[in-house]
Amino acid sequence: METQRRAVVVTGFGPFGEHKVNASWIAVQELDKLGLGESIDLKIVQVPVEYLAVKRLIPELWATYSPLLIVHVGVSGMATSVTIEECGHNAGYIRTDNCNFCPGTHCCVEGGPECLHSDIDVKEVCKRASSELSDVQFTVSADAGRYLCDFIYYTSLYQSNGKSLFVHVPPVGRPYTATQLGQALQAILKVILSMHVNHEERIYCQRKA
To answer: What GO terms are given for molecular function (predicted)?
Structure first.
């Protein structure tokens, strides 16, 4: 009997500000070329840099694909490494998006917790990805920036009860090529998926009650 392929959704952002071609979308397209193996149905989606588009799109992605997980990718002009974000924040959104819009409440979810953490063991993923791909530096962060990157992460964590991840990539060529960025995303996803299928371990970290 043929094993059913499970969906994994990876998103990247469209252009904004000085990023006329967003490195996150380039990296996601490179990942799509590499793939995640025969058992995974990889879906890639470009997300507009718009708050309302994010609020509409995230529930649609979970409802449409019922994925194992969704990984969101964004660009950071300050980053020099591939940065795996631990958590998303609910409040503090004061920058306007590509439509010159900003949420009136300055938050993702009214009444939601201030911070939501991914249930994925981010530090372990970073450690294993670093050993898998030695020519790219991976780091962990707890501040995704209070703009669309943070906004989509919190929104997705809230929607999925923690079954999401966010990765920041530096601009292409500073210092990594598009191919290296795609390989970095592939390494992260393969580590997560290997943790998921290994019955001796769990994809999610054990949290104390």
So the answer is: pyroglutamyl-peptidase activity
